[in-house]
Amino acid sequence: MTISVALAMLHRDGRWLLQLRDDIDSIIYPGHWGLFGGHVEPGESPADAVQRELEEEISWVPSAPLQLWFSDASGTRIAHVFRGPLTVPLEQLKLREGQDLKLASLEELCSETIWSDHCQEQRPIAPGLSIVMRRLLAEMDDA
C-alpha cells in the first residue's frame, strides 16, 4: 500500500522552516531535520492534510492556502510538497511535535547537517529533504 504524505516548505527572510524529528526509534528518520507535515488521512486531500498538520505541529495555519510545488512518488510513499511564506515570526510558533525547529539558510540545507540549539549538536537532514533541495537548486539555476 502506498502511503501519502503532505509536507510544507515554508520560507521567511530567505530561510526555510525545518523540524527536528524526535529521537524515537519507531518513527522514520528519528533525530533528522525534515519538513513539517505528515500523513494524508483517508478521504482527505493533500492540501487539507498540510493545513491540518501545520496546525497540529506548530499551532499555525497559513492565511492563504499553500501551493502544491511538486509530488514525488519514490519507494512506498507519495510526498506532496507544498510551498509558501511563513507569515509570522518564528517566536510565534508553538512546537507541538518534534524536538526543535529552525529557519535554515540554503547553505545550511546544502551542508546536510544543521545545528540544533535544543540538542546542542549538529543533526543530519532526512534523505527525503535532499529531493526538495535538488528541486530548489534547479529552480534557482533556471532563474
UniProtKB/TrEMBL annotation:
Protein's name in the database: NUDIX family protein
Taxonomic source organism: Parasynechococcus marenigrum (strain WH8102)
Cofactor(s) the protein needs: Mg(2+)
GO cellular component, one term: cytoplasm
Gene3D superfamilies, per database record: Nucleoside Triphosphate Pyrophosphohydrolase
Keywords from the UniProt entry: Hydrolase, Magnesium, Metal-binding
Domain Nudix hydrolase, first and last residues per copy: 1-127
UniProt KW Metal-binding keyword: yes
